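Homework-ish question, so no full write-ups if that breaks the rules, but can someone show me the predicted structure for this set?
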Amino acid sequence: MTRGRLGKDLLGLEHLEADDIRLILDTAEPFKEISERAIKKVPVLRGKTIVNLFFEPSTRTRISFEFAEKRLSADTVNVATTGSSVVKGETLVDTARNLEAMRIDMVVMRHGASGAAKFLADRIESNVVNAGDGKHEHPTQGLLDLLTIRDRRPIAGTKVCIVGDVLHSRVARSNIWGLLKLGAEVAVCGPQTLLPLGIEQLGVTVFRRVEEAIEWADVLNVLRLQLERMQAGYVPSTREYYRVFGVTLERLEKAPRDLLILHPGPMNRGVEIDSRVADGPHSVILNQVTNGVAVRMAVLYLLAGGKPELAETAKGAPER
Amino acid sequence: MKAILIKGGRLIDPSRNFDGLADVLLEDGKVAKVGPKLAAADAELLDASGCVVAPGFVDLHVHLREPGREDVETIATGARAAAAGGFTSVCAMPNTDPVTDNQAAVGFIVSQARRAASARVYPIGAVSLGQRGEQLAEFGELVGAGAVAVSDDGRPVATAHLMRTALEYALTFGIPVIDHCEDVSLSAGGAMHEGLVATRLGLKGIPRSAEDVIVARDLQLAELTGGHVHLAHCSTAGAVAMVRTAKSRGVRVTAEVTPHHFALTDAACAGYDTHAKMNPPLREAADVAALRDGLADGTIDCIATDHAPHHYDAKEQEFDNAPFGVVGLETALGVAVTELVEGGVLDLPALVHRLATRPAEIAHLPAGTLAKGAAGDVVVFDPAAAWTVDPARFFSKSRNTPFAGRKLKGVVRWTVVGGAVVHRAGDAPAASAGR
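A: Not a homework solution, just the prediction itself:
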């Protein structure tokens, strides 16, 4: 285990200082360039072993972490729940201890239970990176969203509205903490059935109508509407959701020209977002994906004890 | 049986409104004499100076897990834990495996309790067969075998119709129907109180209304039927307010609160501590204040522990996956003295009333009094002595307490059941009993 500037683990943004968040974003800047090279690899984490432990299906986040790890020259192992001993009834703590007995350095974990990342981090010596725990936090997604906004405008003073299923969203929580700490104004918008109780007490404005949110915001972060929500009675139908809360081209007509549209993916086109918006000039959705790799490289580098001021040199000279 | 003379203590007997220095002589398992400066040559002497001498505590709500989960508690270990906590009578909820829904199951608990020879254990029968919420259990046979109340605890009495018929049918036998008030359609999937802490932790909340709508239902039905409803583990300010107004219009309702609900808030769940996961969940400061007010003015009749042992492994899990419930028998007095007496909510006589006399009245138990001729069930405790909760020293088989490491006031010196000492301060559980 190593202990860098961020401490042992990255479990969420709620308990990070604003300076730590800036540090990660600043450290990500030099790492962006590595992914643009012909040979996308630097020896920063050579000899480190990282386990990607995914208890929930994930494509984007898992691949993004894997690229980040490989581009930093770490040795990686992917464990998905199907085909692992987890399906045989092994507990989380036993799974973790067995992995650790194989002398690993870091665990990147996605898990369906809120608090699972902390549970693991409290029980093993290795660094733990939370790749999404239940409805709690998804800190690297929050960070890549921050980086994507910061690429285009200063975060302080920017008005960001998170639209959709905030109640069940770890992305929303990480965004709210990160944005508030960096001085943004934050709002949420969605049907009241999908907004968590007491959200206003965090310093977040609530919009009941998406038109009002669009008129107010500089940035919209549009959340995915899980299809299970209809069965559970939170919203009547995807059709109605699109009609009332969908971020459509027509609704954006009143928006300022530089409004940014983010989406953590995967998108339900025609449910929470209009394809013409997702693929249109406001969208920075693919920039988020690109930034995801750089942010995750920065997190892994810092947790491994890398010195932020050396990030530029650590990545070495561009290969020619 | 050797007589016991408890000398020099402050006797508090709410059944006779007595609070003063008095000695108690127990002979043949009963209270033989109460008065100043008693002497008895052959009696075992318990020096109670500086201590409170009170009727043994009565807990209307424990889960002793036998039959079915003897790995986490048995009637013997649960009764011993009760004795360690100053309880001389406990009422065992029927959600065992199999469910206590017939006279044979009730008889099994009675016989196991007799063998345990510790605190008395009174079975509570199920309201419905298998606690399935469909067909009434045979209350007459349950009571005949020794049941003192009925409950589907662990879940609510499933429908308003079933609750109505249970209240009506119970009138014949003079027993309370104890309800666990939870609208499961509102609480489904919830892991803690619905509020800001749950929002921060990303845990699904259980709203106050999950309790309040069933409390409202039960009060209406108690009023309709004239039956006696006892509300288990009240957790919300709304429940306290509804019970208060119902009592004022004469509804036959009684109510209990657990130590954890009057001592802790949902803030204890921060950090995903599964020892703060219970059902109903820990609520907010306003609820705690209302529960304390309710205890103070008698709206909440009594304190009950909802002692719910769970295996170490079961709590050593992700918060969502861990079971609800905490043990409480061995910390109840300490938490109550520290939070309620030191906190200025109840004086010691009122505390003894809520822990002994009132719960005995609710379930019509021969307990809660030290009048001459009453059962020799006595607790002697030092309200000023401090101790630190160390779960490794529990007599319960389980250690799942939210109070580990807490400094508390109030130490049980002796617990006496039927004129025999069943617990002395300093007794330690046998090494094999614990894990």
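Now go work out the reasoning yourself. Hint: Chain B has a mean pLDDT of 97.
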